[in-house]
Amino acid sequence: MKTQRTFFFSILILACIVRGNAQDVIYSQFYANPLYLNPALAGAKLDQRITLNYRNQWPSISNGYVTYSAAWDQQFDKISGALGFMANADVGGGGIYNKFSGSGIYSYRLQATRFIVLNAAVEATYLQYKLDWSKLIFGDQIDVHSGNSEQSREYVPSKLNVGNIDLSAGILGGYKESLYFGVAVNHLTRPDIAFYEGNENRVNMRLTVHSGVLIDFFQGMEGNDIRNFSISPNFIFVQQGKFRQLNVGMYVNKYPFVWGLWMRHNFGNPDAMIALFGFQSKNYKIGYSYDYTISHLTNKSGGAHEISIAWLFRRSIGTSRFHAMQCPTF
């Protein structure tokens, strides 16, 4: 059984590296990984922020896809903007196909009017893709009688480790700390990540459009983004190559708890329902979400589990001339 599963991943991954285009992981707790969603969200909370994210997709399938992310960002008034750093690791097939990226971000902030805040960001990333050929199993290796593996005659790629530079950009606008809208374009340079010589495999650009409104029924606690009771309907649209995805849902905040429910649609078919539960305080938050698959794949894949943790280190001296953007925290 283990050999069969490894064979399945071998075929899937080989199809990707020979003729396919890489597709980015899409987190379900969108705003809990803000720099991944849109680099213009760097510094949106003004204070120093650290975020950690974990996603396990298709856990019922042995050696599925596991993704890790860590990020830091903070607003600096002296440079009229924010700095951010982010690292992501994607492990597929139990380490057969691995992706790592490290990014640096600068987000310029403009207080256009008393009520309108604008962010414009640029992001530079180093992308690295690694293929562990020794873990792949091909059809000519399998003895149909014994199930044992033998030496494959498949041609080993000339490169098993590919690195490249990538650029991304994003914009974000906020109005009266209640309405927000953002657009991000990742992989502007479309880096080539092909393992085989003479075979071009460029990463498609990823377009993200996100917007929502915060309806606060009571005044926020001490003027920060923790709400006594509020709701926040949102939508997020993502397109990468021919792949398109629309997420529509709503957060409900009743301090110190947050609930969320989303519908994810891939245009070809409804994909999943996403349920979220989170706990937040003034200085930290933790959230858990589960993707329940409703597509033809069914939930036999195990859906997806996601966990997020964040810390906010508030300023102890002085205040900023800018206003924090009140986007959701999960």
Look at the structure and give the mean pLDDT: 85
Question: Would you identify the CATH architecture?
Answer: Beta Barrel
Identify low-pLDDT runs.
1-12
The ordered H/E elements are: HHEEEEEEEEEEEEEEE
The CATH homologous superfamily is termed: monomeric porin ompg
CATH fold annotation = Porin
Task: Please report the total strand number as a whole number.
Answer: 15
Can you count the helices? 2
Write up what this structure looks like:
It is built from 2 helices and 15 strands. It has a 14-stranded antiparallel beta barrel. Helices cover 6% and strands 49% of the residues. The protein has a single domain (2-313), classed as monomeric porin ompg (Porin, Beta Barrel). The radius of gyration is 21 Å and the shape is globular.
State the main characteristics.
globular, mainly beta, 15 strands, Porin, about 325 residues, 14-stranded antiparallel β-barrel
Q: Could you give a quick summary of the protein structure above?
A:
The protein is mainly beta and 330 residues long. The protein contains two helices and 15 strands.
Task: Give the topology, please.
Layout: H1 2-18, H2 34-37, E1 48-57, E2 65-76, E3 81-92, E4 97-111, E5 116-131, E6 161-175, E7 179-186, E8 206-213, E9 215-216, E10 229-240, E11 243-254, E12 257-265, E13 270-280, E14 284-293, E15 304-313
Antiparallel strand pairs: 1-2, 1-15, 2-3, 3-4, 4-5, 5-6, 6-7, 7-8, 8-10, 9-10, 10-11, 11-12, 12-13, 13-14, 14-15
